[in-house]
Amino acid sequence: MGPDVIVTYERIEQLPGEIRLIYTEFDKEIRPNSDLHSYLELCDNVVERKPSLTLPEHLELHHAQRVLVAIVDCYKLLVDAKERSAFKGLIAQIEATPLAPKTPGGSHGLNAVFELEFLQYLRYRNVKARLGEPDIVVSTALGDYYVACKSINSLNNIEKNLEKATSQIAKRGFGIVALNFEPHVYYDGVMTTNDPIEVLATLDGNASDVYKDYEGLFDRKLSDGCFDGITMQVCCVANIVGEETDLNTMTHNVYYSRSSIQPKDAVVRFRSFWSAMRGVNSYFR
Questions:
Q1: What is the model's pTM?
Q2: Nearest alpha-carbon partner for 179 in 152, 160, 203, 157
Q3: How far apart are CA 94 and CA 112, in angstroms?
Q4: Exposure check for the chain: N or C terminus, fewer CB within 10 A?
Q5: Separation between Cα atoms, residue 172 and residue 232, nearest integer Å
Q6: So where are the chain's domains?
Q7: Beta strands at 143-151 and 248-256: parallel, antiparallel or unpaired
C-alpha cells in the first residue's frame, strides 16, 4: 500500500505548460488574478526553487499540484463530445473561483476539483468511469451507476446536499453520494511516518468525528431508498519514509450503508461498487 498519488518535483514543473495548452484547446482564458494562475506560477521552475521553499509554501505547492494533476489526468482520458463538454464546464469553474482549501463557504471551483479527483480515485482502482450527470457515471456489470459528488463546506448543509443528490440520482437510476469532508479535516502540516496505515487510521478517526452526529440522517435516507450508500472522503499530505517524494496525497474513504434497513437490491449494488473499490485505503461501515 502507499499514497494514492505520487508526483515528483520534475513532474510538477511540467504541469503548468500542459494546463495552459488544455485551456487554450477549450478556448478558456486563465486570468492573471485567478487562483489557478497563481498555482501555475507556483509550479513553474519548482525544481530550482525547491531548496528554498518554506513549509507553508510546500503545502500550497502540494494543493496546487493536486488541482493541476486532477485536470491533466482527466483530460487524457476524455472519451466523447459529451464528456468533453462536462470537462469544459468544470475547468471553467476552476479558473473562475477561489481554490484555497479553506475558502469560506467553499466554491464551485473546489467542488469541480473534487469531482475530478474522485474520478481520478476511481480510475486508479481500474474502475471504468466517466464524467456525466449528475457528476460521474460508473460502468458496472449491473449497468450504469451514478455518483453525485458533494463538497461539504458547512456541516449545516449536509441534509440539503443529500436531498439534492437524491433528486439528481433518481432522475437517472441508482447510485451513491460521494461526500468530501476535507474542508473539515484539513491539515496545516505534513504527516511523516514509516507506516502508511498510521496515516489512514488518523484520517479514519478524524472522519468519524465529523460524520458521527449525522448517522441518523444517513440512515433515514438509506431506509427511504434515496440512494444505495455514501462514501466519505478525506485526504492529507504524507511523507512516507522510503518514498521518492515528500508531497504525497493519502486518500481515505469510508463506505457507509445499513443492510438491515435498506432495500435488498440497493445493498447488492452498493456492495458490488465497494468491492470494486476495496483496498487498504477504504473502510466499510
A1: 0.91
A2: 152
A3: 6
A4: N
A5: 22
A6: 9-284
A7: unpaired
